[in-house]
Amino acid sequence: MLNFEFQNPTRIVFGKDTVSSLDKLVPADARVLILYGGQSAERTGTLAEVRAALGGRTCFEFGGIEPNPTFETLTKAVALARAERVDFLLAVGGGSVIDGTKFVAAAACFEGDPWQILESLGGAVQNALPLGVVLTLSATGSEMNAGAVVTRKETHTKAFFSSPWVFPQFSILDPTKTYTLPARQLANGVVDAFVHVVEQYLTYPVDARVQDRLAEGLLQTLIEIGPRVVHEPADYDSRANLMWTAAMALNGLIAAGVPQDWATHLIGHELTALHGIDHAQTLAIVLPPMLRLRRESKRAKLLQYAERVWQLTTGSEDERIDQAIRKTQDFFEQLGVKTHLSAYGVAPEAVDALVQALETHGMVRLGEHGDVTPDLSRKVYEAAL
């Protein structure tokens, strides 16, 4: 097992009817900026619950944060936070709203060009406004970590930053808030959580038995509940398990002491930036060819994955690896998430621009071994067509 430090300060308040906890969690004298996405938070009554729970606190609101939050929109929220002397942020939504709120928290206290927050991967952040979360969509795990992804429309750049300053102070996780979500968003959530686990698990062995077993349990849970969540009427237990699995998938616990990959995410980001494909859809497209093309460097963990997650114990090693990757791809398709670029209208001619974008953004040595070069990324895109 590799050396590691682990700390996660986010307080989780989990269960039905927990939005009312805001009255205890947010300082009574806070000047609060509530951030949200589209109209669903208003339509479903969640914003009304939030307003009621905040009571007489001075509150301001900023809506319209996109599914892939943009730098351009978020800087408007920063301006509002500064103008109104806001001292607490509350994200009401899913991962995009939470990511956007983290950026606003850092940028509101940042002197200079706020894009430096992203250019420095978060290293330039020295302070941030405190923030809390009311989660309405289980997917990214942003409710319990210190990372965020922001897109700059002007340059088609999807950039990541992380800073301990932007850990949410608390996150309210009420599974009933996911009941009105459409199947597409639910399927995306399952895929996103699944690939988050894979990026931390399917690398190479370092005898991290606790982390491996935790990761395998999360993957098996998603396989069990995913189709039910997407295709059947909402039930509390399935949504509760999805909500907690998504948070556990990226709160740092299974990443402690193990090598991590993230090439699938970074290659997928360019598909979102250039073609507007949902983030989780890009992961479902990229992961299967990524595993096939890197099977030798991942052989030991692929065999472990085949046996422990998919119960594949017969046949040659290569046959078991092939079956495990095929079952993974079939699982995504079963959820209704297409796994080929052609299904999203992306033609072979688009590959050159995708590879060029990776090179422009410095994504030239990705993966746990740094061996995912632009040439290999090209092969992944081509195999995904």
Describe the 3D structure.
With 385 residues, the protein is an alpha/beta fold. The chain folds into two domains: 167 residues, Rossmann fold, CATH 3.40.50.1970; 203 residues, Dehydroquinate synthase-like - alpha domain (Dehydroquinate synthase-like, alpha domain, Up-down Bundle). Helices cover 47% and strands 11% of the residues. The strands form two sheets. The chain has a six-stranded parallel β-sheet with strand order 1-8-5-4-2-3, with helices on both faces. It has a two-stranded antiparallel sheet with strand order 6-7. Helix 10 packs across helix 11, helix 12 packs across helix 13 and helix 14 packs antiparallel against helix 15. The model has no long low-confidence stretch (mean pLDDT 96).
Helix content: 40-55%
The first-to-last residue Cα distance is 37 Å
State the CATH architecture of the largest domain: Up-down Bundle
* CATH domain topology of the largest domain: Dehydroquinate synthase-like, alpha domain
What is the element string, with H for helices and E for strands?
Answer: EHEHHEHEHHEEEEHHHHHHHHH
Superfamily (CATH H level) name of the largest domain: Dehydroquinate synthase-like - alpha domain
Determine the structural class based on helices, strands and strand pairing.
alpha/beta
Sheet of most strands: 6 strands, parallel
Number of distinct helices: 15
> How would the global form be characterised?
globular
Strand content: 5-15%
Low-confidence stretches: none
The overall strand count is 8
Rounded mean pLDDT is: 96
Report Rg.
20 Å
Provide the spatial order of strands within the biggest beta sheet: 1-8-5-4-2-3
Task: Tell me which oligomeric state these chains represent.
Answer: single chain
Number of structural domains: 2
Please identify the top-level CATH class of the largest domain: Mainly Alpha
